UniProtKB/TrEMBL annotation:
Main location class: cytoplasm
Record keyword DNA-binding present: no
Presence of the UniProt keyword Disulfide bond in the record: no
Organism of derivation: Sphingomonas telluris
Name used for this protein in its record: N-acetyl-gamma-glutamyl-phosphate reductase
Subcellular location: Cytoplasm
Annotated InterPro entries: AGPR, AGPR_AS, AGPR_dimerisation_dom, AGPR_type-1, NAD(P)-bd_dom_sf, Semialdehyde_DH_NAD-bd
Classification via SMART domains: Semialdhyde_dh
Length: 335
């Protein structure tokens, strides 16, 4: 048994981690932290998990709570991990952080996109960027992984093989992506309330969404990214455009790049978010448009799965020397 602590266990991602861990052959959720829900049971906060965690309660985190822990997952609001990372790393416990705090390479880039100085810049080099399909070897040998953002995961997986093979011009990439409202977290907000999102489709974060920095870092490209909010609970569909170089067929490049990947499927069909709902799967396709000279690439993921909890577990499996697919599936829940 691998004793697992979850920081932020009361949120949507925390709930998804708990659901996936319940089916994992080795991981067990033994310490659950949720500051706003401390003292309440998992069954109260995540009623769908009551059959597995009926009597488990959320607590408040303190350093002593790391005793008897073999793995730490953090699904905390932005900025919180900067204050906790040194404590966790000092104990040598494998740590997978979903926050944006340690995803970027340097403090200056972080400050540019997040609007304030990084509080633990000396730790940035300790973390490996967490997309296994592009960083597997480094993740396997690391004690600290910063799991990629949900939008970034969708776009990077669709584009990286095309950039690496010089099939598209990396200087001018456009990414439009639409996400379900669970990506905004569990806390009630007017912008993501039912009356606001139902029957509506809206762009946000114009020119400034922070996942742009991850895309540019991983792709070594210049990216214009526009996120959208769509009236559904979970899922991301990323639609990506770039100038073609004429160096090869983009769909064949995706198929070749991911031929041996268990969670990424390149398909002739245009993917839909429903195909990957509830899974760690990624569905991709691409086309060359000879009329405009551009490449179109599409990616569908579950923002709570491959975009969050699923990818965290995939990274942890690698870090712990387990089967990378343990506790995970590429098959979505349909209809």
């Amino acid at each position: 048994m691998i004793r697992t602590a979850i920081l932020g266990a009361s949120g949507y991602v925390g709930g998804e981690l708990l659901r996936l861990i319940a089916a994992h052959p080795r991981l067990r959720a033994t310490k659950l932290f949720g500051e706003s829900k401390a003292g309440r049971t998992v069954a109260e906060v995540h009623p769908h998990l009551a059959p597995v965690y009926a009597d488990t309660t959320f607590g408040r985190f303190d350093e002593a709570a790391l005793e008897d822990v073999d793995l730490v997952f953090a699904a905390l609001p932005h900025g919180h991990s900067q204050a906790l990372a040194a404590t966790i790393l000092a104990r040598g416990i494998p740590f997978v952080d979903l926050g944006a705090d340690f995803r970027l390479d340097d403090a200056a880039t972080y400050e540019r996109w997040y609007g304030h100085a990084h509080e633990a810049p000396d730790l940035l080099g300790e973390f490996v960027y967490g997309i296994p399909e592009i960083n597997r070897v480094a993740i396997r040998g690391s004690k600290a992984v910063a799991a990629a953002g949900c939008y970034a995961t969708a776009a990077i997986l669709a584009l990286k093989p095309l950039v690496d093979a010089n099939i598209v011009d990396s200087k001018d990439i456009i990414v439009d992506a639409a996400s379900g409202v669970s990506g905004a977290g569990r806390e009630a907000k007017e912008a993501t309330g039912f009356s606001t999102v139902d029957g509506s489709f809206a762009a946000y974060g114009l020119l400034s969404h922070r996942h742009t920095a991850e895309m540019e870092m991983a792709l070594e490209a210049r990216v214009l990214f526009t996120p959208h909010l769509v009236p559904m609970t979970r899922g991301i569909l990323a639609t990506c455009y770039a100038e073609a170089t004429g160096a090869g067929d983009p769909l064949e490049a995706l198929k070749a790049a991911y031929a041996d990947e268990r969670f990424v499927h390149a398909t002739d069909a245009a993917p839909a978010t429903k195909w990957v709902s509830g899974s760690n799967g990624v569905q991709l396709t691409a086309r060359y448009d000879d009329r405009t000279g551009k490449v179109l690439a599409l990616s569908a993921i579950d923002n709570l799965g491959k975009g969050a909890a699923g990818q965290m577990i995939q990274c942890a499996n690698l870090m712990l020397g387990l089967d990378e697919a343990a506790g995970l599936t590429a098959c979505g829940v349909y209809p």
